[in-house]
Write a structure and sequence with these properties.
This protein is an all-alpha fold. It has one domain. α1 packs antiparallel against α3 and α3 runs antiparallel to α4. The mean pLDDT is 89.
């Protein structure tokens, strides 16, 4: 193996490790957040009451978060999971900014990570 191929494969390996790390982090965060919504943590029940769409929306959001977390881990569905999580986080950012207040920074960070994963894996849609 030439030294050029070793040098050129190192950045790919690091980007692959970084992408797996982002996917794992997103999956863990969204499983925890989705489970908390489904379980009915009092703070989240009150937050969704303030939003005004009813508690069914809390269950729906929690279920979609758990589904997105599962999809982002499965190699053939990474893009779909990342896009689903992007949509959820866009809604969360707008909800924080215009409805419930509070900091939208955590939702923005999760949105950016989801966009990075979706963009990095976009070629898998074309191969399907």
């Amino acid at each position: 193996m030439s030294s050029l191929s070793v040098i050129s494969s190192a950045p790919r390996r690091w980007s692959s490790i970084g992408l797996w790390t982002a996917r794992t982090l997103l999956a863990l965060v969204f499983v925890a957040a989705g489970a908390a919504k489904i379980y009915g943590v009092p703070m989240l029940v009150a937050e969704f009451e303030h939003i005004g769409l009813g508690q069914w929306f809390r269950y729906l959001t929690g279920g979609l978060e758990v589904a997105g977390a599962a999809l982002i881990i499965i190699p053939s569905t990474v893009v779909f999971g990342a896009v689903l999580l992007c949509c959820i986080m866009i809604g969360a950012v707008f909800t924080h900014l215009f409805v419930i207040g509070g900091s939208a920074i955590p939702a923005i960070v999760l949105l950016v990570l989801s966009v990075i994963v979706a963009y990095a894996k976009r070629s898998t849609i074309l191969r399907s």
